[in-house]
């Protein structure tokens, strides 16, 4: 039997690649966790774009990519993206803020983020 890499694996990799590109274009650094991880795909390190100075300010990132054309309850300003309660508890337990970045691959843009406190901020 041949080994396989599934479509969902490719979708996930495309989402992380997109997140990396957006973060770097913003002038920040993106450090992918890679390998085995429990719910954090990477870290964004904030930096001063003018001076290049970094100050150990980190945001943890959980990326979710989709090829769906519409998300659950999506409107022009909001959407719903269900996640497991165990994921939320894991994110809330940590010491650094966690951003859930949802990427609609067909539109080539991140459409929202979930902060550690559970609020959702649509991105345009």
Short note summarizing the structure:
With 124 residues, the protein is α+β, with helices and mostly antiparallel strands.
Written description of the protein model:
With 124 residues, the chain is an alpha+beta fold. The protein is built from two helices and six strands, in the order H-E-E-E-H-E-E-E. Strand 3 (54-66), helix 2 and strand 4 (98-104) form a beta-alpha-beta unit. The longest helix has 19 residues, at 7-25. The protein starts with 6 loop residues before the first helix and ends with a strand.
SSE blueprint:
Blueprint: H1 7-25, E1 29-32, E2 42-47, E3 54-66, H2 85-93, E4 98-104, E5 109-114, E6 120-122
Parallel strand pairs: 3-4
Antiparallel strand pairs: 1-2, 2-3, 4-5, 5-6
Keywords:
124 residues; alpha+beta; six-stranded mixed beta sheet
Helical segment tally? 2
What ranges have pLDDT less than 50 throughout 5 or more consecutive residues? 120-124
Mean pLDDT over the full residue set: 84
Fraction in helix: 10-25%
> Major beta sheet, specifics?
6 strands, mixed
CA-atom Rg in angstroms: 15 Å
Helix and strand run: HEEEHEEE
Query: Which structural class best describes the helix and strand composition?
Result: alpha+beta
Q: Termini separation (Å)?
A: 45 Å
Shape: globular
List the strand order in the largest sheet: 1-2-3-4-5-6
What portion of residues belong to β-strands? Answer: 25-35%
Q: What is the β-strand count?
A: 6
